[in-house]
Amino acid sequence: MYSIVVATLNRAHTLDETLRSLLAQEAEVPYEVVVVDNNSSDSTRSVVQAFEETAPHKVRYVFEGQQGVSVVRNTGI
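Given the sequence above, the corresponding structure tokens read:
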């Protein structure tokens, strides 16, 4: 299983397109998309939850309250 980690902070307006693009990929190995929300104040959580409902076991939402790209990447891993 491969994991694609998407770190995001207040980018709900582009997250929908990003997730659609990632889920459209055809791969010979199983993969998941892990979205790590770095304490966003926009609708990031609801955007990801909509994908979790339509693509169960492919998309996961993780919240990280401590801001910083290295913290978010480590959380995703």
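The beta strands are 2-8, 31-37, 59-63. Try to locate this feature in the token string yourself.
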